[in-house]
Amino acid sequence: MIEQRNEHTIAAACSVSGRGYWSGREVTVALQPAPAMTGIRFIRSDLRGRPSCPAHAGAASGVAMRTNLARGPAKFQMVEHLMAALSALEIDNCLVCVDGEELPGLDGSALPYVEALQQAGLVIQASPRACLVIQDTITVQDGAASIVASPSEGFTCTYEYHLDYGSESPIRNGAFRIGMTPHAFSRQVASARTFVTEEQARQIRQAGHASHVTNRDLLVIGTEGPIENRYRYRDECVRHKVLDLIGDLGMVGTQLIGRFVSHRGGHRLNHRMSLELMERIAAAPATSYPFRIFGGEDNATGATPKPMTREPRVPQDPISKRRPNALRPRRRRAA
Predict the structure, then answer these.
(1) Angle between helices 111-120 and 80-88 (to 10 degrees)
(2) Model confidence over 213-238: pLDDT tens digits?
């Protein structure tokens, strides 16, 4: 069950550096604390005047294999992995200073961002975090691909993906579901990497992109499986699709409470769902703040959610029986 909480920012600045997949350019992403109610804001530190762009669906565009943000000269490519890490670790306010247009590809996952943010720690801020509670069904569809948002049981948030590229694809069909918590994301999804088929990799390189990217920098999948690489999970591809879904829906700009199921969806369809959810936020009564309840008078449990009066208890790791502090940011209260 998700309880009402206050907003969070990071306790200290941190950074991640690497080369962009598409451009091959070296780039550094510097993450800095931000005041309450700031949201996630991307800043081009390499441009005069440091133009910025908020990380919300209205400024985003889902294109092939990535999600981009743009507002005037402030343009950013491949933001979804960082957005997944920020959203899953419950970091609501952060300044993201980037000295280039394309964010680094790193190892193709969100894990380097998660590790940097966990080292930075977490600060609890004074403002309550707004939530969108889904009570009716919302569907976006494009041919055989679809995403459905529906009410969840027990006032929770779950993400589910069904992967199916057809019988001719070397990528296995599969499904994966995660009940969203910082701990679950860090353990089950964060390290799942970007993937392409061997034929897609050939086409991308022939077009003059990603010439520096090797088969060990992401998953290139041939008829016998990953080429010069190994799966981190047997179902790593579908887990990465869940990662992308979390990152793209993170640009709604509020905590989501509901069930989100994608069948063969991608960044474009994720973006359409984000826009649909933002419309619901705009239409929700302001009197329900911080819970913007869409589709009914009550939340999914049939009762008004109660404010959080204490820090939520971190569940024990069922394997080690230890508190999994290393798997989520350290919490510090703002002065």
Answers:
(1) 40
(2) 888 888 999 999 999 999 999 999 99
Cβ neighbours of residue 330 under 8 Å, at least 6 residues apart? 11, 118, 121, 122
Partners of 134 in beta bridges = 294
Q: Is the pTM of this model over 0.70?
A: yes
Half-sphere exposure for 202 (CA within 13 Å, toward CB): 6
Q: How big is the CA angle at 191 (ends 144 and 246), to the nearest 5 degrees?
A: 45
Between the CA atoms of 142, 146, 147 and 149, what dihedral angle is there, to the nearest 10 degrees? 100
From CA 244, how far away is CA 105, in angstroms rounded? 14
Q: Which residues are catalytic?
A: 267
DSSP, residue by residue, 132-193? EEE-S-EEEEETTEEEEEE--TTS-EEEEEEE---TT-SSPPEEEEEE--HHHHHHHTTTPP
Q: What is the mean pLDDT of residues 96-108?
A: 96
Tokens 């790593």 locate to: 236
Residues 226 and 233: their CA atoms lie apart, in Å, by: 12
